[in-house]
Amino acid sequence: MNKHIKHFYSALDYSSSEIQYLVNLALKMKSGSVKKSLAGKTLGMLFFNPSLRTRVSFAVAMLKLGGCAIDLPIKESYTFEYGNGIVMDKSTIEHVKDAAGVLSRYCDALAIRSSDLITTSSDSVEVSSWEMLKKDTVIKKFMEYATVPVINMESNVYHPCQGLGDALTIKEKLGNPKGKKYVLTWAYHPKALPMATPNSQILAACDLGMDVVIANPPGWELEPSIINAMALRAKQSGGSLAFSDSMNEAIKGSDVVCAKSWGALKCYGNWSEEKKLRDQLKHWIVTKEKMSLTHHALFMHCLPVRRNVEATEEVLDSKNSVILDEAENRMWAQMAILETVLGETV
Ligand code: CP
């Protein structure tokens, strides 16, 4: 890997103060301080999985900064090989080493979404084990071979742009969030979803110095090594990290409730087993009654959301729901990331 290139793969590759810098830069941009700092620069976007918000917010972010984004049509592109030293006499047509090298000659940065559980199918797809998926092979290979920065638009493990957008939303709404209670609660969803978003959302709340509680049913614990990293970041930022297996208990007295579903790590590669367990958890839904236990908490969700499944419409459309601001803030957060990663400001 080219050591001098600063990729944006995870908030953990940046210090809490660097994350704080990006949040403040995004706030400044949102308040009107936007320059055409990326005039003449191009972002190449590769979506291996569906997207609405990330796709459009990155394109508009580049436009606002004077540059342009190219959404590469992956389905019409060649199939990529990721293995080392492979005799390519089967179905893969182009090695990522060549593809990343070529794209680096055209583009000033690349942005990749590769997250195996994000699909448009009505049911979950069978995936490999968590041990395999957590290698994040696709984006890691692009990071290895690209000669320009690579931005993570959601992998199997992290969704750092969602995390930064959420940090911006919390700061914008609460002012100084230090010491405020943030609850990330698992919610029922008919499919197994990636744990990238909750990982990055929780890291963001930890970086803000909040008192963070993760609520999930037994068996849906997040990856222990990432939990350890979250706990360390929380401590460094003057916050805390705690756990609960009850949504009701967790959200009592909270200032922010963020709902998110994810797949059970032990069931990766065994969807039929997870479905049986998951179908007993339909009561993990955020309702008006549950929100009444909070301290007038903001309600957050990264979207897309299954209405009346993950949260009721009463909650999603309530005055405390900030889901649209949260989606908008993806754009401002990404403008801060793009200017920093592509520009000459840092
Ligand atoms: N929250 C989010 O990443 O949305 P998309 O999947 O639509 O990009």
Spatial separation of the terminal alpha carbons: 21 Å
The CATH architecture designation of the largest domain is 3-Layer(aba) Sandwich
Q: Count the DSSP helices.
A: 13
Helix content: 25-40%
Strand order of the largest sheet: 9-8-7-10-11
User: What is the CATH superfamily of the largest domain?
Assistant: Aspartate/ornithine carbamoyltransferase
**Total separate domains:** 2
Please tell me how large the radius of gyration is.
20 Å
Overall pLDDT score = 96
- What is the CATH T-level topology of the largest domain? Rossmann fold
The succession of helices and strands, N to C, reads HEHEEEHEHHEHEHEHEHEHHEHH
Tell me, briefly, the overall form: globular
Tell me briefly what this model is.
The protein is an alpha/beta fold and 346 residues long. The chain has helices spanning 16-30, 53-64, 96-106, 130-133, 137-145, 160-174, 196-207, 224-236, 247-251, 271-278, 288-291, 313-316, 323-342; strands at residues 42-47, 68-72, 80-81, 94-95, 109-113, 150-152, 181-186, 211-215, 240-244, 256-260, 298-300. It is globular, with a radius of gyration of 20 Å.
Key features of this structure:
globular; 346 residues; Rossmann fold; 4-stranded parallel β-sheet; binds phosphoric acid mono(formamide)ester; 2 domains; 13 helices; alpha/beta; 11 strands
